[in-house]
């Protein structure tokens, strides 16, 4: 159920993801969009007009002194997340911050410290934790539907039509860090195990790419499960979305609504194959891929009921740490063993 309290909301960063947040928020009865901020005055003004914000600015700090603002959504570039979140909590604001939490281990460690010491609530936007298809897959695997999980195959490639947008993202980090934190978190969340070994390859497809814009990570988990995560952002590659979970008694595949060749109106398609009988089971789920409002409701529940974050900050840092180390392993062409501290 929606909260009865009306929360004043501010958005910092009016780009692609920031506007996706507001698309899910601006018509909610318990949300009032107080202000938006962006370094580009045109972007800020456009977002304010589009979503009915009461004010817009190029200096986000102006919104933090507005007493009408209860919650701040941080949807800026990764390299700015730590600074902005520190400012938000210092001004007594609750925060929903986009991933990743930084671009280095040192930034990630500082981010965790800030969250744990904050008097307000902070939730990191690992949106797939709030996706009903992934929740269903986790429940199927945890219940032993396909036996012991042995392999995870995951790919999320983007045909980067808006190359300037992706090129700017690559100034902060590679796809294995920016997008990889989602799927490395999913791997650990689904299994309850930790990633303990990583290696991989990467390259620049575009000569003007600031960093590797194609990455493939191989990983081994503490429970013996292995897997890979492939992520590329390029004008020269096709988009692709593969999610397959292979166990000792069958496999589970996820086909997103937009990737279905038919029956898209039925939503995502989860297929479970049982090797002992050769039978297939189909599960259709009419879900929101990026359920921004479900994520915000989690933060509101944290505020109103002191409920735990989902994911909690230690889980966020665990996936972030693996992603940072994976980026290092790919760039150096090495295999890294991970323990609780390295």
Give a quick rundown of the structure.
With about 350 residues, the chain is of the alpha/beta class. Helix content is about 35%, strand content about 30%. The protein starts with 6 loop residues before the first strand and ends in a 5-residue tail after the last strand.
Characterise this structure:
This protein has 342 residues and is α/β, with parallel strands linked by helices. The protein folds into two domains: 7-125, Rossmann fold (3-Layer(aba) Sandwich); 129-289 and 322-337, Dihydrodipicolinate Reductase, domain 2. It contains eleven helices and 15 strands. The protein has helices at 16-25, 41-51, 61-64, 81-90, 105-117, 132-142, 163-170, 175-178, 180-191, 292-305, 313-332; strands at 7-12, 31-37, 55-57, 71-74, 94-98, 122-125, 149-159, 195-203, 214-221, 226-234, 240-247, 250-255, 268-274, 279-285, 336-337. The strands form two sheets. Strands 14-13-12-11-7-10-9-8-15 form a nine-stranded mixed beta sheet. The radius of gyration is 20 Å and the shape is globular.
